[in-house]
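Hi V.,

Quick status before I head out on leave. The structure for the redesign project is tokenized and pasted below; the design run finished overnight.
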């Protein structure tokens, strides 16, 4: 059910995005910075939890097993197999980062009550456009790799690229 919902959301976003993507939406090119922000957040006091607290992304490691937001591997994997371009995924991710979610507490079992939103916006996190672009680039590049055929050059290249990005150390002042 959760996977079906994620696929419906992705399909809707892809249609809304024009399916072809727009390379100008994200100009991220720093996988290491994107991974660090995905796992550790901005480090700003009062910022929402990290992306990894809500989303699953296998390439990010065991710290990215969130159950609140869509599983990026399940959401983007089937579309990767169908040949969608990475810039399409970047565009979908980047645009979602600009849209604040609706307040909720029951639907997502948010422990913080209705003061939390389903998906905080980029501004809520305090990310610059460049940081948001790097996160979108990292997710687009490293999501859904298990769905690709093993002997495919794109699979080998993406796995090597994502595997070479070291996991960042959490900030020294992280509360956990």
């Amino acid at each position: 059910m959760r996977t079906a919902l994620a696929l419906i959301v992705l399909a809707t976003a892809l249609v809304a995005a024009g399916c072809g993507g727009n390379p100008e939406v994200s100009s991220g090119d720093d996988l290491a910075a994107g991974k660090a922000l995905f796992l550790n957040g901005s480090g700003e006091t009062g910022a929402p939890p990290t992306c990894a607290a809500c989303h699953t992304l296998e390439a990010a490691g065991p710290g990215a097993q969130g159950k609140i937001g869509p599983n990026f591997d399940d959401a983007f994997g089937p579309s990767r197999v169908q040949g969608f371009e990475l810039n399409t995924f970047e565009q979908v991710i980047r645009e979602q980062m600009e849209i604040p979610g609706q307040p909720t507490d029951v639907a997502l079992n948010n422990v913080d009550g209705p003061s939390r939103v389903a998906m905080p916006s980029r501004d809520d996190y305090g990310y610059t456009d460049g940081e948001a672009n790097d996160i979108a680039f990292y997710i687009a590049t490293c999501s859904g790799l298990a769905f690709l055929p093993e002997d495919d050059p794109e699979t080998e290249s993406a796995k090597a690229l994502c595997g070479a990005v070291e996991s960042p150390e959490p900030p020294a002042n992280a509360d956990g």
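Above is the designed sequence. Residues 2-17+30-164 form a domain with the Cytochrome Bc1 Complex; Chain D, domain 2 fold (CATH 1.10.760.10).

G. will cover questions while I'm gone.

Best,
W.
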